[in-house]
Amino acid sequence: MSTADTTLGELTRKQLQNLCRVVGMDQAEPVRLLGEVMGAVHDRPLAQPPLWPSNIADDATPVEFSVQVTGSGRPSLRILAETLPADPGPVANLRAAKDLVARLAERYDLPLDRLRAVEDLFSPQDPQGRFSWWFSFIFDATGRPAFKVYFNPDVRGADRAPQVVEEAFRRLGLDHAYEGVREHALCREADRMTFFALDLDHSPQSRVKLYISQHDAGIDAVERAASAVPGIDRYQVGDFCRLLAPGTERFPGRPLVSSYSFVEGDREKPSNYSIYLPLRDYVPDDSVARDRVRDHLRDRLIDPALLDEVIDAITDRDLAARPGLLAHVSLRMSPDETGTTLYVSSEAYGGNPPRTAV
Ligand code: TRP
Questions:
Q1: Which domain holds residue 207?
Q2: How many domains are contained in the chain?
Q3: Which of 147, 124, 122, 123 has the alpha carbon at shortest distance from 136?
Q4: pLDDT tens-digit profile of 160-205?
Q5: Pocket test for ligand 1, best of 259, 328, 355 (most atoms within 8 A of CB)
Q6: Within a domain: residue 268?
Q7: Could you report the per-residue pLDDT of 44-62, keeping only the tens digit for each?
Q8: Is the residue at 352 inside a domain?
Q9: pTM of the model
Q10: Considering the domain boundaries, does residue 332 fall inside one?
């Protein structure tokens, strides 16, 4: 899909336009936001190496697309992105993220009260870890965006993550949230908090979310994590893992990730649990990944044809060549609704390289 002088912005715009067509959504606003969040790397030719080792995707592409589907209703499209300045570095990247928030808040009239309540916790002078702030844009059927900001719990050093997250919950009026999470999903030594996220919108459904990477976990660990949410069937999480990674009892590669959402009124317990399975580490290649995801979609009464349309929107590469295109698959569970999200890599920089760090 690209030639020697294609830029990162051009390739990802084309992919996004194709995806908009697949989900039947107007592309003007998504394309504009993609261009804006890419910042300084938009016009960088793909022939040059990535300007910054973004951890959004394995190959350092600073954006990732995802498509969320439920049994009923139209699929919705999302973009996860790290915004990058011309002179990237931990301090400059955080500055660029804050500048982007300011521009978006003004244009879309975003409520920033919750972000203001916690932002100092996630903005140290000397940011640590792999990123400071990331963004996602979540589009409804008309192409109207909603915004989410992800903060890095390790930004003051991994040893301070528990204090930072506990304090952030407290400032948001969720005084007991951290305790519950600790009991269910931070009980193993290899459980680590990876993202603390806020929806930036006015609705009472606006979420506070915490993600935990459960390194080297077995299925029992994620079922236990799911049991923190009242009214959902934790065993669906095990079934999901067994279907996508048959025969895998323990996940020693990229970790299973658990997340919890808290919305207004959830003082004690989260109302939603999601499991994210990094499929690319548990399949020989993407043709196998495709077959398994098709089975999952069929089980959930979702037309599996959607998956091929999503894949074709991104790439025409041979799926059997390697894994990496289908990066994660997630199952979102609340008492009244279940949904699946497919995370697809742009592979702008060639796709999944060997894993280098934990
Ligand atoms: N690339 C990172 C990872 O795989 C971050 C990330 C991107 C991620 N999309 C994700 C993590 C979806 C969990 C779920 O960890």
A1: 3-345
A2: 1
A3: 147
A4: 999 999 999 999 999 999 999 999 999 999 999 999 999 999 887 7
A5: 328
A6: yes
A7: 999 999 999 999 999 999 9
A8: no
A9: 0.96
A10: yes
